[in-house]
Amino acid sequence: MVTSLKRVLVKRPDAGFAVEDYEKWHYTGPLDLGEAQREHDAFTGIMREEGIEVIYHPEHQPNHADSIFTYDPAIITDEGAIVFQMGKRLRRGEDIPMERRLKELEIPIHYRIHGEATVEGGDTLWLDEDTIAIGQGFRTNREGLLQMREALEPSGIKVVPVDLPYFYGPDACLHLMSLISYADHDLAVIYSPLFPVPFWKLLRERDVDMIDVSKDDFNKMGTNVLALGPRKVMMLDCTPDVQKKLEDAGCEVITYKGVEISLKTEGGPTCLTRPILRG
């Protein structure tokens, strides 16, 4: 989650993003496509300035407003990609164009979540190169967990389930990564009121220091931090208290404006990116 980011896949907002029925998508207000594109261009510009190769996922998906969140339909492993089936019904079908794009990039498909199983990328959190936590909530089900074990355990990767709280229910977006982001191998940002106690204890056993955010900052996605490298992170520009805590912990923090692409749509910098290669 934190080694140097080298190559990333993103999707620039297009007409499929600017839906009129924003409440159906659980967005907080009408979307301005032009402003969303400007925000996204500035967001990707930051990564380019940091020497990261930015690759686009250009296929138009008119019925998938959430497809700008490229983190969710697949994950990349040393064996190749694992392509997911989405738990959110409105996002079903995003996996097909994602699989096409990964094949265009000559990334082998290692495994495909199938049958009644659902997994979303936001519920996948690498604890180290050999351990991945899988959130168990409304987006990733038990069968999805079992298939992730089938896909990963032969490669020696341990899969750790993490039960998630009900929060606002099945229509809202609560992934495991809504509650935690890594800024370094031993530093994470969390929201403790919703944090599962067994998982908190596991992180303490692994000597991970945790920066706790306030309720107000959690609602502004203060827990959604994208590591560009160890203690070098990108985050939204609206949580200065979290930014200061990260800087006090020795992090370099780069902020971006994301009213349209993040705050209105429940998707921060990690959601907007599918890391293809970290070095």
Report a brief summary of the structure.
The chain has 7 helices and 15 strands. The chain has 279 residues and is α/β, with parallel strands linked by helices. The longest helix has 17 residues.
Parts with pLDDT < 50 across at least 5 consecutive residues: none
Ends distance: 11 Å
Measured as a percent range, the helix fraction is 10-25%
- Give the full name of the CATH homologous superfamily: L-arginine/glycine Amidinotransferase, Chain A
Report the sheet with the most strands, covering strand number, pairing sense and barrel closure.
3 strands, mixed
The CATH class name reads Alpha Beta
Tally of DSSP β-strands: 15
Shape: globular
The structure class reads alpha/beta
Average pLDDT figure: 97
CATH topology: L-arginine/glycine Amidinotransferase, Chain A
Account of the protein in words:
The chain is an alpha/beta fold. The termini are close together. The model has no long low-confidence stretch (mean pLDDT 97). The protein contains 7 helices and 15 strands. Helices cover 24% and strands 25% of the residues. A 3-stranded mixed beta sheet has the order 2-1-15, covered by helices on one side. Strands 3-4-5 form a 3-stranded mixed beta sheet, with helices on one face. Strands 6-7-8 form a 3-stranded mixed beta sheet, with helices on one face. It has one domain: L-arginine/glycine Amidinotransferase, Chain A. The radius of gyration is 17 Å and the shape is globular.
Features:
single chain; about 280 residues; alpha/beta; L-arginine/glycine Amidinotransferase, Chain A; about 25% helix
